[in-house]
Amino acid sequence: MKKVFKLVQAGSDITMSVNEDDTPMDWNKCLICQESTRTQVAFLKNVKSLILTMKTMGNPFRDTSGDLLVLDTREVVDSSVVDSVRKMKLLGENQHNEFFKSRLVERITALNDRITKNNLPLFRWRPEKEKSRTQEQLLSMKRDRNLFSTLYIASQIRGADLEDFFQHENQSFPPSISDYGKMRLGKKSDLLQCLEDLVPHSDDADHTTSEVDMVIIDGAAIANVITPGTSETFNEYSKEFMIYVRRQFTGSVCRVDVVFDVYREDSLKAATRKKRGKGIRIRVEGNKKLPGNWSQFLREDGNKTELFNLLSERVTNETFPGIVVMTHGEELRCSETIDSDWLSPSTQEEADTRMLLHAADGARQGCKNILLRTVNTDVVVLAVSLAHKLDSAQLTVAFGMGKSFRYLDATHIAQTLGNDKCNAILAFHALTGCDTTSSFTGIGKRTAWSSWNAFVDVTPDLCRLAQTPTTASITQLLPNIERYIVLMYDRGSSDDNVNMARKTLFTQKGRSIENIPPTQDVLYQHLLRVGYQAGHVWGQALLKAAHLPSPAEFGWTRKNNLAEWEVMWRNLPPAGAACRAVIKCGCIKGCRGRCKCAEENLPCTLLCKCSGCEREG
To answer: Of the residues 15, 215, 477, 532, which has the fewest C-beta atoms closer than 10 A?
Structure first.
């Protein structure tokens, strides 16, 4: 310990000699000079090692971001841990004062009473794991068991109003469109097969790409595909990304746009990203080492934001055979000067919609053949829906990777589909499940597509859903869409509303509770979210500054008054709290006065505290 102190003191002495030029250093007083040659050599080696480390990893004392970093891995400590560290002294002082006051001054607490542990999130803290799917299933089964047991006992005396029961969900979340309280995500790509069946398949890829004069790339998707490989630093990775962009300049291509997502704290897609897993926040700097787990790194929104900004800065500084345009948050970075008034600044959050905004700009600039590179079904649906609005430009989508890669002629598909269905397809896609709306349990895109073809009367209603609807207009659309939902579950049903269909399918056709339609109340909330996504988010894809209403008006609510949004599943209470059949009183000494059963004019049952007294309802 004494030697360590001497080395630290020696470092301080040397620092003073460097900073104070007018005061010559007295090397005889330097502690390290008083050590043996072996110790001095070791000290010099350690100093060189420290200098090399700072050159490689950066000088931590020059960091002005305010983040708390792990020096070697550059991981950013969670904000809750930072908050604990900053408030720890104040918290300790307050608790000390309270201890002294309550035990020694006021003497209202015994001196030997236990002191509660704070359990603050500190450096080894990790967020609590969510319940597993098996645990959620067990909880759901217990709730169903309790509900139906209660209904069985109550119905022995009172009977049961099944119509009233099926107007309510049996649990706090609807099993028909939720995954134990979370958004139910279906298989979006099934819709592609429905669209591809409309046009003959072509393997003429050379003809498809030879005439392309503009390529638009989904940057986030490509970042997932281009793994670091031999790259060791973020600068080296940006060169790999640049090589990929350069390869797009083939044939007559004169412009390549790379579009990234913008990640906001209050994003509606936060829940979907959270379901894919959460990564570790790492500071992205050009000369810093790449993380070992690339896919985990890309699960963290902050990592992606810094990475995408770095890529757009590095790549657009290079020289290319044509123009390269890359998004940088709401702004743009370009390899050459262009007229960007139609593109920037843009409030579009999703790369899906912003890619179509760039396609419209390319068509406006005279591009006749535009290629979109993506792995997202949403981009294909948007391309088909908006193809007829792009100044006669030919729109093709290069979709997928590896064995699933193929070219989709969005313009040809749109022409075959017709204008009415092109205008309605955004609402259809959102209604049957996308990143911000739930899919229906057991009902895939193909089944829904087949039902749409059988019930074309719903097309005008879907069109209105995709045209910036209001809550009032969605209420007017509900009856016809209800009939469509009923046909999705049972093509031969004569029921006009989902509540009646729920009763019929459960009682007469033996469907399980999760395989019947949602209640009318839940369906209305679902349609609000569909209208928001299809009509307001996607419906304004060709505007650089979309005017979005508050999600609180369209089936969303703030989670614990925080920035994060969560789904508002229903307005009506669940069956266990709403159905008159399960009402029970707490009367102990006879039922009179404020007896709940008496107020509802119901006889008491064995569920009541009075054990079913003889009072007549």
So the answer is: 15
Backbone angles phi, psi at 360, to 5 degrees: -65, -35
**The pair of three-digit structure tokens given for residue 267, joined into one six-digit string:** 């994003």
Cβ pair 395, 410 in contact under 8 A: yes
The candidate with the shortest Cα–Cα distance to 565, out of 266, 300, 301, is 266
Query: What 8-state DSSP symbol labels residue 60?
Result: G
For residue 3, the model assigns a pLDDT of 46
| H-state helical runs in 531-616 | 575-578, 596-599
485-518 pLDDT, tens digit each = 999 999 999 999 999 999 899 888 888 888 999 9
| Chain length of the chain | 617
Residues of the chain predicted below pLDDT 50: 1-7, 17-20, 206-207, 617
Beta strands 406-409 and 214-218: pairing type? Answer: unpaired
Residue 238 vs residues 227, 318, 398, 581: alpha-carbon distances, Å: 11, 11, 23, 65
Residue 521, in any domain of the structure = no
* Residue of 421, 496, 498 whose CA lies nearest to 462: 421
- Answer yes or no: do 7 and 47 share one domain: yes
**Is 78 inside a domain boundary?**
yes
- The dihedral sign for the CA sequence 76, 77, 82, 88: negative
pLDDT for 439: 94
**Per-residue confidence (pLDDT) for residue 18, from 0 to 100:** 46
- Number of helical H runs and strand E runs in the chain: 23, 11
- The pLDDT of residue 369 is 94
- Number of Cβ within a 10 Å radius of residue 258: 30
Residue at 49 is within a domain: yes
| pLDDT digits 0-9 by tens, 448-477 | 999 999 999 999 999 999 999 999 999 999
> Residue 105: which domain range?
68-112
Of 57, 84, 99, the position where a domain reaches its end is 57
Alpha helices in 187-340 (DSSP H): 190-196, 205-210, 219-225, 234-247, 270-275, 294-297, 301-315
Whether 242 and 324 have beta carbons less than 8 Å apart is answered as no
For 394-494, where are the alpha helices, taking DSSP H only?
Answer: 410-417, 419-431, 445-454, 459-465, 471-489
How many domains does the chain contain in total? 2
Q: Is 309 a member of any domain?
A: no
Contact 192, 377 (CB under 8 A): yes
The two structure tokens encoding residue 375: 């792995």
DSSP annotation of 355 = H
